[in-house]
Amino acid sequence: MARDFLTQRGNTGPTEQRAYRFEGRPDADQEQKLRQFIGAARFLWNRMLADWITSFEEKGKSDPVKTPAAYKKESGLEWLNDMDSLCLANVQLRFIQAINGFFDGETNYPKFKKKHSCKDSYTTNLANRENPNLFLDGCLLKLPKIKNPIKLRLHRKIRPGGILKNCTVTHEPNGKWYFSLVFEYPKIEVPKTAKEKDHSEIKAIGLDMSLPELYVDSDGNTPSYPKPYRKIAIKIAREQRRLSQMEPGSNNYKKQKIRIAKLHAKAKHQRTDFLHKQSHALTTQYDLICIEDLDMAAIKRSLSFGKSASDNGWGMFTRMLDYKADWYGCTIIRTSRWFPSSKTCCACGHVHKELKLSDRQFVCPQCGNAMARDHQAAVNILNEGMRLYLKNCSEAA
Ligand SMILES: [Zn+2]
To answer: CB of 153 within 8 A of CB of 139?
Structure first.
């Protein structure tokens, strides 16, 4: 149910999002509600995590995460009914994302949220467009389950024509209240410059290496990587355990070693096959493919990245792109490894130096452009690659 709320699309067709952060001035009653919702979000997160750990320890596997509705029925938890249900739905969604991220090796083990030592915030969202539970009217913000709207200090203009999709309320340690608003707009095609128009017949794409998937492209797509190694890895680990219980040098031991080697070979074969298909599709479909010139040796040296980076096969993939590009008349452009592809805003060019590696979402502090980090990086790689390409063309001419 939570997912339905959160993915409900306000616009049909391609959309883009803008985020704005404003200080707000809740009155005493409103402040009390906001504190309650933040507390409820923290409480639910901690309960979900505790229950998840318990089921893991007792059964060796995790039960499906319970819904907020199920928690509301528990005796002693009736008070959750008075909370913003969308705030609770967001907690469930984020919790599921956190454990999936953990199992995919992308994020650390989820942590308990302690009062004041974690971010005091909660997120709510638009559930119904016809009868909106969340909207901004002038400088007044209406939030679900809070009777009167909260006054915001709008220090900058909001682009008109958007739909307020979600709001994150944060109580800063200095006592101030902030409201991050995400609006959704129909996507506007940016008119091309004359120089680009001359080359408008060029079909180009940018790729940003991404984990655990192979890449995100400049259209925001990700190939459906079959993750063969990951699936087979579980099997390999099991067979490896069996091997450790066998007498070294025995016939069974030798047979088991061969079985394991075959599994490794199968994983490798599946991965290579996938990389061939992807590189073939790209080099036959595009005239220009822009990628980052990554130092794979350095990436492998950093331990945490190492296994996934080699598993993910990016190095092998780029070698395939290189030789297949030669076969099919495609050009591969490598952007400098010092080019700040993930820190540059592709809408206004602002370099967001404070962006951390853990920030999966890019929100430009300058213009509010909000995009998934890897998608934005791929767009920047494409733009930079095109720039280098056109520069080469004009120098050659
Ligand atoms: Zn920007």
So the answer is: yes
